[in-house]
Amino acid sequence: MQFKQIIGQEAVKARLTAGVDRQRIPHAQLFWGIEGCGKAALALAYAQYLNCTNRHDGDSCGTCPSCRQMEKFVHPDVHFLFPYNKEAGGSCNDLLPRWREYLSRSPYIRLADWTAFSGAAGKQCIIYSQESDILLGKLSLKSYQSPYKVVLIWAPERMHETLANKLLKLLEEPPAGTVFLLVSDEPDSLLATILSRIQSVHVPPIDDAALGSQFDPDTVRIAQGSYTRALQQQSDDTAARGFFESARQLMNAVVLKDLVRLRDWTETTSKTGREPIKRFLDYVSHIIRESFLANLGQPELLYHTQYEALFIDKLKSHIHPGNVEDICRQLETARAQIGQNALAKSVLFDMGLQLFTKIK
Ligand SMILES: [Zn+2]
């Protein structure tokens, strides 16, 4: 990982590279900040920079033998500790191939994603105490080829107490030529004695201008400096737009009393699967309630995207105190029938016909 591959964070990059250039290399640093700000990516780029044999222009070269090994996360002098569940693997060493595969997908990593990727979805992950002996064994060996050995500990707040105490001893008498890089969302959960022996590298949220080069303004606003949140928002938004488009087709058919349109909509929607249909009906209920509030002059427009606001503005004259309850009940009935495995096509078509009579 080179610094140039990381979104924004120019000030942090400059500080990190300047330290190495001046040979001021702390034996332990804690990269901390919100989830998705790029802490792990920066720690990886720092480790690569440290051992690159041809650094230039404030970055590692990406092509020397050390960089090539770092890019694949197979550098023999770089050791990883990360949380896992014993159902997924017996040790960090066992899980290393999986871990490398995970990092190579994106360096913007999240514990919940890694837990699932490692094969322990929904399970608790920790860094087990046995890792201390494994690590001490590795550190007692001479470094293979580089000036620095690097130990990268991701989510160190998940370390077993025994391991945390062993690490503390290592930090009190750091082995020569070894650099510890800790990466944490929750630095407050670390032992105070560890924190006091480690240099803090605060990684701020990614600035909006940098995120704006990859995401639209709505996504940037919601992401609040987190790349992972921006990605999540983008995928939620794609699903929401699909629901919106389908809701628009349904309400157009209903308002125009157009049976052909209703039939076409039913054909398409009934094929999307029971769970998506249930979520879609929840979405339509939400739009109906919002249109009703807009009709009463109390729109909660903050929660709408621009395209929803325009649609609700057109729909509001059709939703009033005389029909809003009936419409919502109709949607709930259809939702329940879908949940009871009724034939989706007939449930949706009947629901549309009922809505014909309720929406003038
Ligand atoms: Zn290099």
Topology at a glance:
Elements: H1 10-21, E1 28-32, H2 39-51, H3 65-71, E2 78-81, H4 92-105, H5 111-117, H6 131-140, E3 149-154, H7 161-172, E4 178-184, H8 192-195, E5 199-202, H9 208-212, H10 217-223, H11 227-255, H12 259-270, H13 274-295, H14 306-315, H15 324-339, H16 344-358
Parallel strand pairs: 1-4, 1-5, 2-3, 3-4
Helix pairs in contact: 1-2, 2-3, 10-11, 11-12, 11-13, 11-16, 12-16, 13-14, 13-15, 15-16
Bound molecules: zinc ion.
In short:
By secondary structure, this protein is α/β, with parallel strands linked by helices. 54% of the residues lie in helices and 7% in strands. It is built from 16 helices and 5 strands.
The CATH topology of the largest domain is given as Rossmann fold
Q: Which percent band covers the strand fraction? A: 5-15%
* SSE arrangement, N to C: HEHHEHHHEHEHEHHHHHHHH
List of distinct ligands in this structure? zinc ion
Counting DSSP E segments of at least 2 residues, the number of strands comes to 5
| Count of alpha and pi helical runs | 16
CATH architecture of the largest domain: 3-Layer(aba) Sandwich
Which percent bin holds the helix content?
Answer: 40-55%
- What coarse outline follows from CA principal-axis ratios? elongated
Q: Tell me the span between the first and last alpha carbons.
A: 60 Å
Number of domains: 2
On the 0 to 100 scale, the average pLDDT is 92
CATH class of the largest domain: Alpha Beta
CATH superfamily of the largest domain: P-loop containing nucleotide triphosphate hydrolases
**Major sheet: arrangement of strands:** 2-3-4-1-5
Describe the main β-sheet briefly: 5 strands, parallel
Structural Rg:
27 Å
Class of secondary structure makeup: alpha/beta
Poorly predicted runs: none
